[in-house]
Amino acid sequence: RRLLLLPPNHLDAISQEGLSEEREAAGSGGEPARKGKQRRGGKSKRKKAKTDEDDDGWGEEEDSSETESGGGGPAAGERQREHPFIVTEPGEVARAKKNGLDYLFHLYEQCREFLLQVQSLAKERGQKCPTKVTNQVFRYAKRTGASYINKPKMRHYVHCYALHCLDEEGSNELRRAFKERGENVGAWRQACYKPLVAMSANHGYDIDALFNAHPRLSIWYVPTKLRQMCHVARSGGGAATSAAGGLPPPPPPMF
Amino acid sequence: RRLLLLPPNHLDAISQEGLSEEREAAGSGGEPARKGKQRRGGKSKRKKAKTDEDDDGWGEEEDSSETESGGGGPAAGERQREHPFIVTEPGEVARAKKNGLDYLFHLYEQCREFLLQVQSLAKERGQKCPTKVTNQVFRYAKRTGASYINKPKMRHYVHCYALHCLDEEGSNELRRAFKERGENVGAWRQACYKPLVAMSANHGYDIDALFNAHPRLSIWYVPTKLRQMCHVARSGGGAATSAAGGLPPPPPPMF
DNA sequence: AGAAGGACCAGTGGTCCGTA
DNA sequence: AGAAGGACCAGTGGTCCGTA
């Protein structure tokens, strides 16, 4: 069951060791390992050879077509990243060093499971219990081996996941349309904002309420840009722009 | 209406100016005002002469009995603080440079009003809306002139306020008993923990649930020590201490 | 060019400890 | 001594920008 959650090309504990070595090597002499703006040098991450259990049918590849370093795993000095996403239809499996959108959404479900575990641990220990996917959860995910999950990525696509949660049909249609047109992931991502703003209008443009009403979505922070777009839509959506003085801003057109 | 919320001895805008001067004087030469561990020197706060409107019947004094500086307001170089709390019965007004516990609890109600204002502003502006009394709320309170409200003080007595909210009768009895015995505020404060832990037992020792069930209490963070005490009570409250290996810790005796 | 993510940064929750 | 609160600090939310 757990293995089904692994990504097609995840990094493993070996990478963690690589990181550790890097960290230790940095503090030469034992001083508190200054973290100046320049801490980008050391390249020592490694990728492990893919094992059979890792093939979970989610995307597959990254094996024989390993060109950059001849034989086995990549040489030291290569920085391993997740493959970029491409716009895929629902159910479509991405090929050729790409990841599909089903996999993207799957990462959000994984984060939710990590949150549930962190919550469960916190309760056992009598500690504060997070209600959202926090830094603590990302750290836990990484420690648990899910090194392919990171905060910037998850935050970047939250609103895409939101559309998937709130209007799966609409989300699916959008994916098909953008794949058809050959648009890249960035364009699809941008297009996910509009239907969400439209949905928020039915709730007085309260995007937080919309997120909180959905149990799998409520654990995610509302992205700043989406909140701003809903605010602008509420304020500027009407015919005329209020020319009156400062105080009570445009009333929300509720339902 | 607003004036009724002011404390018996609040500081005012003058104090803020004093602080500003202090801050500017610190950065001698224009460098980024280093904030080393030593930033404790400058004394430049001032207290303003009390005006008639300030007499709101909450505690009164600090007027003619001003001994330390002869005539009018205190001289520059005096650091003004709120008067310390003393244990008072419900309805009892503290005298002689002391503040009573009704006033303490009143501060919590004031913070709630400041939170409501911050929330209202945030919603108007389409910004994140705090659900708790955060740093932002304390900053807003201070800016609005409530310089007598500060975070360490409010956090220090949160559990006392919790008892007042959740069991006003019990809280009142405790106050009477501790006043009778001539106990100081610290002793009364310590005594407020126990009844709360006992109440939490009825909710599976889930102190967060207890806080969240009360609308005026739910806006306050659960104090670390109270959470720990509830955890200890849940774990060690039973007859025997589990000698078994690590994993599933003591089950909560729920109701 | 398009995209993934290490690392930074302003402001947070939490509370110590120099102060009165 | 008992108590109020300025100021510190580790770890947060947020995302930029050097990287691949």
TrEMBL record, chains A, B:
Q: Where is this region: Disordered?
A: 18-91
Organism superkingdom:
Eukaryota
* GO BP term, example: regulation of DNA-templated transcription
Q: What is its main location?
A: nucleus
A single GO molecular-function term is: DNA binding
Task: Give a Gene Ontology cellular component term annotated to this protein.
Answer: nucleus
Q: Where is the Floricaula/leafy DNA-binding C-terminal domain?
A: 72-236
Which cellular compartments is it found in?
A: Nucleus
Query: Sorted alphabetically, which keywords does the UniProt record give?
Result: Activator, Developmental protein, DNA-binding, Nucleus, Transcription, Transcription regulation
Residue stretches of biased makeup (Acidic residues)? 52-66
Q: Where is the composition biased (Basic residues)?
A: 35-49
Q: What does this protein do?
A: Probable transcription factor.
Q: Which family does it belong to?
A: Belongs to the FLO/LFY family.
- Spell out the protein name for this chain: Floricaula/leafy-like transcription factor
Species per Swiss-Prot/TrEMBL record: Alstroemeria ligtu subsp. ligtu
Q: Which residues of the full protein are shown?
A: 141 to 395 of 395
